[in-house]
Amino acid sequence: MVRIVLRIEGMACGMCESHVNDAIRSRFPVRKVSSSHRKGITEIIAENPLDEESLREAIGKTGYTVLSVQTQPHAGKGIFKGLARR
């Protein structure tokens, strides 16, 4: 699993967050996606790394700009971390 953090310019409200989240969910196989317009970030949890150029394109179509993409391993949280999902 990977955690992908996007710095995004242009989000100003909760609807902006929803537009970004929906664009990602509709185009990529993700486990979780959440955005914060206050922090200017979107966090994605996915099984595998996502193509950076495709992420930039999908979000660009919503009118926002991806400033940076950071990908790192993600082990999960809680008592079930590391267990295979069935």
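[next item in queue]
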Amino acid sequence: MAHRLERLNSLIRHELSDLLLREVKDPRLSVMISITQVDIAADLKYAKVFVSALGGEDEKDKVLKSLDSASGFMRGELSRNLRLRYTPELDFQWDNSIEHGAHILELLDQVKQEYQS
């Protein structure tokens, strides 16, 4: 079952990315948005969708609100494209992993500079 969930997570992530790129015409989503991960529940009824945007934390509230308002449309499109028995409800959440990784790289650069001095 775990392998099926992994494939479904990947498939939903791909479909949502494609929908954001081609179908969603919300002017509030003018920044570059990345769907970094999808985590679907075992009963296939709920999915956490982790997103990140190019603007970072400044864009967080605006992006999440606009994605929540478009979630019904996206869920309907997922239903048409994937033909699942249950189309999961989408819960968009902010993914801080990119900012966290950048912060770790900055810290490593500082350590490197101190070591070389």
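[queue empty]
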